[in-house]
Design a protein that fits this description.
This protein has a single domain, classed as Vaccinia Virus protein VP39 (Rossmann fold), CATH 3.40.50.150. Helices cover 37% and strands 19% of the residues. It is built from 11 helices and 7 strands. Helix 3 crosses helix 4, helix 6 packs across helix 9 and helix 10 runs antiparallel to helix 11. It starts with a helix and ends in a 14-residue tail after the last strand. About 2% of the residues have low confidence.
């Protein structure tokens, strides 16, 4: 697992920078209803996407949350007074506080299925009735673009897909959230080259290939044998799913029949 405190200073540069952030924010906002006044962005990282969410719509108040102190510092510089350090499994907000909640590139990082259920449950809890939850799903699969790099990595030990679409939908339904749409966007600037993939491997990107192990080095050697070491392969295409919290029936009492 990557150390996101150590990653913070170079995180944006290694992941497509502003073009990727713009694509992500545009896709997220396409699933967030107009009229939304408050949005919680969990695992906001450096705030590069969060800032775009906040700037895109007049009157939209955006709060960012991240657990890594260095990420929070970067995000707070982009959104002063609007970023909180907290664990997404135990959010410091009241029930029904937000009109929308987002978890972009978070669920795949969680350590267990229980953590996924807990985080989705917290998102549902702080979401107001009628609000929308938006999340990425199937992140690892998005990076498999059918390249020669993917062919090499196909033999690595498998890891569970915590953010599999079916799993996330089941968790959402268990917490009373109903499917409300989906979207896709391109991870601009994230196409892998062999040399960059080797660097990622040695930084701990691949959880089943721990750095400085013989297995990791065998994969590094196979990647180093590929042609065009610095040519990026195609960019990944990420998937977003949206879920709506049903309106509170008490807010819409049944009409009286004379």
């Amino acid at each position: 697992m990557l150390d996101y405190d150590k990653e913070a200073d170079r995180y944006d540069a290694l992941r497509g920078g502003e073009p990727r952030a713009a694509a992500a924010a545009h896709a997220v906002l396409g699933l967030v209803p107009h009229g939304t006044r408050s949005l919680l962005d969990l695992a906001c990282g450096t705030g590069i996407v969060t800032r775009r969410l906040a700037a895109a719509r007049e009157g939209l108040r955006v709060t960012g949350v991240d657990l890594a102190p260095a990420m929070v510092r970067h995000a707070a510089a982009r959104l002063p007074g609007a970023v909180v350090r907290a664990d997404s499994r135990r959010l410091p907000f009241a029930d029904g506080r937000f009109d929308a909640v987002t978890t972009v590139w978070l669920l795949h990082l969680l350590g267990s299925a229980d953590d996924v259920r807990t985080v989705v449950g917290e998102c549902a809890r702080v979401l107001r009735p009628g609000g929308v939850y938006v999340t990425t799903v199937d992140k690892a699969a998005a990076h498999n673009v059918g390249s020669d790099i993917d062919a090499v990595l196909a033999d690595r030990p498998p890891s569970p897909a915590r953010d599999a679409a079916a799993t996330v939908e089941a968790c959402a339904r268990a917490h009373g959230l109903l499917p409300a749409g989906q979207a896709r966007f391109t991870g601009l600037g994230q196409g892998r080259s062999p040399r960059r993939t080797i660097a990622d491997l040695r930084r701990g990107w691949f959880v089943t290939l721990p750095p400085d192990t013989p297995l990791a080095e065998r994969f590094a050697a196979r990647l180093a044998a590929l042609p065009d070491q610095d040519r990026p392969r195609p960019d990944p295409v990420f998937t977003l799913r949206a879920f709506r919290k049903p309106p509170d029936p008490a807010a819409f009492p049944a009409p009286r029949i004379p």
